[in-house]
Amino acid sequence: xxxxxxxxxxxxxxxxxxxxxxxxxxxxxxxxxxxxxxxxxxxxxxxxxxxxxxxxxxxxxxxxxxxxxxxxxxxxxxxxxxxxxxxxxxxxxxxxxxxxxxxxxxxxxxxxxxxxxxxxxxxxxxxxxxxxxxxxxxxxxxxxxxxxxxxxxxxxxxxxxxxxxxxxxxxxxxxxxxxxxxxxxxxxxxxxxxxxxxxxxxxxxxxxxxxxxxxxxxxxxxxxxxxxxxxxxxxxxxxxxxxxxxxxxxxxxxxxxxxxxxxxxxxxxxxxxxxxxxxxxxxxxxxxxxxxxxx
Length: 295
Description:
The protein has helices spanning 15-61, 77-89, 112-118, 133-144, 174-179, 278-293, and strands at 65-71, 95-100, 121-126, 148-152, 182-186, 197-201, 218-221, 226-229, 236-242, 250-257, 264-267. By secondary structure, the protein is α/β, with parallel strands linked by helices.
């Protein structure tokens, strides 16, 4: 058997040898280049998948943000809402930011504009204030983009007042435009001198997430009863309040509204006694959870 000679080490190669050598070298070059391209593509794919996983995990770990806009003196929500948030909302997994009215200017809410850019839910407890144009526009922008809104007690007439200065803005129809109903004043029942407000859930909506797992379907509130009338189409009345079981003195006290395209909940309850009531406390937790889930 003849010993095989090395194909590329012999200087006396034939033209055919050179031709096949060039083809082989080109082929090997392409293999190397293609291999590098495939490796780069693989590394980029792995990196992309890793970054996407980190991004999704960060999104999953992000807590819903609730911004509280507080500006009223009648019901002490500057104290009750932060305490409630510490005791209930923050342990439930919500980030809570409080925007209090400026003590030197009863219509200014410092920090509101930036807070609304990151908010999932806006929680309003304001009575007859007229914010500056920039703040009111930020509020409208948040609502127009479908941001979730929760209002308690005086939020139904949050911005109904004559502006003190030219750069301030009122919003008289806020109750109808956002909460889907007209606030028309209140009854004069102020316990203990007068009968309390008797609260009942509406049985038709007992499976609604906001009414789920309440520790009772009725309770007594010392909040005097508000008159809220003319519900818009799509408003879902979850609770009613009455005085002495009188049908003529029965009003909606908690409902959802479809007016803005986002999730909206309002209750005319919210005095300090209500915040000590376990049914009301669970109601508000459910409402915040439901509102945040829409975003």
